[in-house]
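Below is how a single chain appears once it has passed through the pipeline. First comes the sequence as given, then the structure the pipeline wrote out for it. We keep one example in the README because the format questions we get most often are answered faster by looking than by reading.
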Amino acid sequence: MVGLLLIASSSIFATNTNTYKIEDKAFANMAASTITDTFSVSNMGCHNDQNLIERALYRLSGVKKVTMLEGKIAVKYDTGKLTEKQIIAAIEGTGTCESPDDRVYKAKKQG
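Resulting structure:
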């Protein structure tokens, strides 16, 4: 009886070891698909407008980090979950602090 338990438990541990290897490979692929793109944004006014855009970007699944500086936005994101077109759409679809319905921002990816 003890022999059967040892055989069964060694099979379970072997399966778990294989699972970790698969997860490690999946994690490596996930890390490799994270990139940072920079976008220029026109018509970005006050600090509150910048905050609105930043919040809109962080709501997107796959955004890891947003850095804003003088009309430019650097976005670190997972390319498996998000495209640059979706980032541009989120920026341009954000309203201003004066009027949430205004769509005045124009975004362009920097080469």
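Residues 2-32 form the longest helix (31 residues).

See the next section for the split statistics.
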